[in-house]
Design goal:
Blueprint (H helix, E strand, L loop, with lengths): L1 H19 L7 E5 L5 E3 L7 E3 L4 E3 L9 E4 L4 E4 L6 E5 L7 E2 L7 E2 L5 E2 L3 E2 L8 E10 L4 E12 L3 E12 L5 E2 L12 H22 L1
Antiparallel strand pairs: 1-14, 2-14, 3-4, 5-6, 6-11, 7-8, 7-10, 7-12, 9-15, 12-13, 13-14
Helix pairs in contact: 1-2
Amino acid sequence: MKTSKIARSLLAGAVAMLFLAPAAHAAVISVNFGDAPVNVPSNIDGVYFNFLTGAYGPSEMVGYDFNPYNNNSGLTFYGAAAPSGILATGTPGPLAQARVLQFGDLISSTGQFNPYQTRGDNFQAGRQEYVGLRFLNETTGILNYGWALINTTAGNGFPASVAAYGYENTGLSITAGETAVAADVPEPTSIALVGLALGALGLSRRRKSA
C-alpha cells in the first residue's frame, strides 16, 4: 500500500516536472524556397527580406534585414543601418566586396561586416553561393548572424534569385547553409523521473497481484 502511494506521488511529481521543465528550443531558423526561389529584380530596389517575419517584396519595408539589388554595375547587397551589415572584405564602405562563402563557413562576430552598399562582383559567375550577414533583431535587441543562398548568372549576376536563408536568433555564430528545425523536447532528467515512477508503480501492482 505504501509503495503504491509513493509510486503514484513520484509519478505525479515527475509528470509535473515534465511540463514545467524548460524545453530545448532550436535557435537556428531557416527558410528554403525550394523550386520557387525569390527573384531579385535587376534594378536599384531589388528585393527586401525581413528574416524575422518571413516577409519579402520589391519595396523597402520596416525592419528589413537583407536587400540584394542591381546598383547599375551588377549584383550588390545591402543590409539595414549599422550595426547590421554584409560579411565583406576590403575597406568598409561602398567599394567593399561581399565574401563568397562555401557551405559550412563560419559567420560570427569575428567577421568584418560592411554597413554600407556591398559589391557582389565575386558572385557574378553563374553559380549558387552563400553570402553572410548580420542584423539587429528588433524583438530581442541582439545582433543575429545569418546567411542567404544566392543563384546568379555569369555577367553582372542577373538574372539572380534567393534560394534560401537562415539565421541564429540568440546572437551566437552560424555556418553557411546551417539549418536546425527541432521540436521542443523535455529535459532528460524529467524523462528519467517519469520512467522511475512508472517502474515503481508497476512493481507495486505486481506485489499486490502476487
